[in-house]
Specification:
Elements (H helix, E strand, L loop, with lengths): L10 H14 L4 E5 L25 H6 L1 H20 L4 H11 L3 E6 L5 H5 L4 E3 L2 E8 L5 E3 H11 L3 H4 L32 E5 L8 H12 L3 E5 L6 H12 L4 E4 L12 E3 L3 H11 L7
Parallel strand pairs: 1-2, 1-7, 2-3, 7-8, 8-9
Antiparallel strand pairs: 4-5, 4-6
Helix pairs in contact: 1-10, 4-10, 8-9
Amino acid sequence: MPTRELKLLDPQERRLLDQAVALLSGLRLAVLTGAGLSTDSGIPDYRGPQSVPRSPMTYQQFVGDEALRRRYWARNHVGWRHLRRADPNMGHEAVAQLEQRGLLSGLITQNVDKLHSSAGSTNVIDLHGTFDLVVCLQCSSAFPRARIAEILEDLNPGYLERESDAGDVAPDADAEVDDTAGFIVAPCPVCGGMLKPDFVYFGENVPKDRVADAYAMVDAAGGLLVAGSSLSVMSGLRFVRHAYKAGKPVVIVNRGWTRGDEFASLKVEVGVSEALSYLAERLPDLTQD
């Protein structure tokens, strides 16, 4: 999937980004990214200025309502193929460049699309899981999403062809598909139990060890750079508060209000890909002790 070229920055945007460079220069950074970074890869976000209002399924709805679970799996069956075809954009590549230059303590992403890893980032905490794994809630077995797709295709022949004109796909691979009533959900190949995409759903907690590792990344950094997240959920906001309480500079790059604005040393309302590329070009290498 092609990514668009970067837009030219206007003078005010450059001034803001130059302030960010001045604030972050000489520091090893922790980076926290959200869905706004992947919009340039063709994946609509949840809460950006142009976003279509969505009501993501909660964990309680998924496990407690068979009809809703069927609807989710049908939409996910269509949507995950869209995420699989998405390519990293210049923002993902810029973060990978910062890591390769030794400027990052690590990367925390709220996205499940794995585009950071595809761009070359290696020290990545996928806070909310990844789209390419499925887990069984009964026996805890894990399966590649591609294997479950084959099973779903066998159970629902022709479904993908009939729904090939699905609308927007959300960051969690939820496609706009209406005809879901007859969709057959795959059971666990091992025990016959309930399968769930390996995402952290709304109403579900991020695993404690994953949270601890993310806090350690922030502790090891001299500053925090947030890119493309509205910070509307606590799973990401807590790291902004943590850095703020530790007296570390926090730079937030996001168009529109975020829940962490009051903790930001600097708010930069510039396109995320443009901003990250600008910072990657201008942040100096760290001096050796």
